[in-house]
Amino acid sequence: MKLSRQEMPGNAADVLTLPLTDIAHLFNAPAVDPTSIGVPEILGMAGVEYLLQQLEMVKGRGSTTLRLVLPRPRVISGMAEQSEAALRTYAEWRIEQLQLAVRATRRHGRRLTLVAVLLLAVFLGLSTIFASELTEGMRPLVRKTFEYGFEIVGWVMLWYPLEVLVFQPIALKTRISALRRVKGLRVIVEEIR
Question: Based on the domain organization, do 129 and 169 belong to the same domain?
């Protein structure tokens, strides 16, 4: 069974369904068991991580309800409220942690970009030397190889800093957005039929 989106009867709210064999697997990764009916057991990952991955792929307002489906002996009264509170607490702490990570990543990216720009200037300078009259005595193939090689290396040096400065924060913010959606989920618990 997959985490599925479906309409609740008589309600317009989107519902995410997550089958589990044990409520502990909502936050703790179980051992891999491909014969299980629970998604966390099949994948060997915590249910909340699977839920976050699914929410990251679905943009927009999305689902408002999480339906946890468990075997009859595992369902206890008050489980929905406890799970909802636990998801909210988990999401709040993870959001705070990821917001710190976004700031740290941007600081790190700015430092890397500064170093990369300085190295770009050095490599473009070396490329210019090999393109100038100073190296006319060199064989043309060697001269052009060094000229273009230094230029390429200089520009390639910018790739990683730009990834850190621009793309890593985007991934972190996508996770934060999914966590905000988890924080607002209403949880219902049902028995496996």
Answer: yes
